[in-house]
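[job 4471] stage=fold_predict status=RUNNING
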Amino acid sequence: MGTQTASVQQAKVRPRRKTKVTGHGIAFTAFGTIWLIIAGYPLLYMVMTSFRTQNGYLTGKPWLPPTHPTLSNYTQVLQADFFHYFLNSAIVSVSSVVLIVLFALLLAYVIVRSRSRTVRTVFNAFLVGLALPIQAAIIPVYILINKLGLYDTLIGMILPMVAFGLPLSLLILVNFVRDIPNELYESMGLEGATDFQIVRYLVAPLAMPALVSVGIYEFIQSWNNFLFPLVLTQSRSVQVLPLAIVQFQGQHTIDVPVTMAVVIFSALPLILAYIFAGKYLRRGILAGFGK
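[job 4471] inference complete, writing structure tokens
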């Protein structure tokens, strides 16, 4: 008992090891700090500018915080049908994400479980879409959407976003579904489970990190998409935020604070997505390609 007490006392008085500071650590810390300032200052600049008046922006120092902040810029943005454009963007982005995740999950299951050459050929055809830029296919997409009678509609924007979002999403999900042990598939098959039940109760829960990653990534891509709304719409009733921001900037070319306010409003969902779900995005993509 006395030996144990002495050992505990020695452990308490034992000095802590000092962390050795190396030149590489100092250089890495300095580089990280500089990079944080470079990457974060544009966002800080937009926030500070959005609280300025037009006169304060022209006569003051833009790189310093405003001396008399104001919310008039945000009020002006909210009164300019901002919520209408925000709702259109939300409908297009959420619908695209749901369709992409659903189709990619079902296709990934079929590709992994099937031994048919036709299925392999279809998978390779999807992978070709990774090398096809949107700009090269915009004219055929415009003609097809126009022929289908979907021009200047929200559905006419959703379908191309789903088509161009499927290849990468399918590639990520195939890596996850392929690593599920065959014994689990076989055990559920012996219990009489159908393919849809296997996907719902086995594949979807195990592939949840990939599903979250795909959902976040495709939401960001759909929310920021500018080319499809520009080419496939023309009326203000179906405009989304990226296109509305450009037109709003054209109406207020000199009013930089108002433009910064609308940019911050439009970027707020993406910033929140990066803050609360960025780790799931990185974890899912790295895990999918690392297996």
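[job 4471] summary: The chain has 14 helices and no strands.
[job 4471] exit 0
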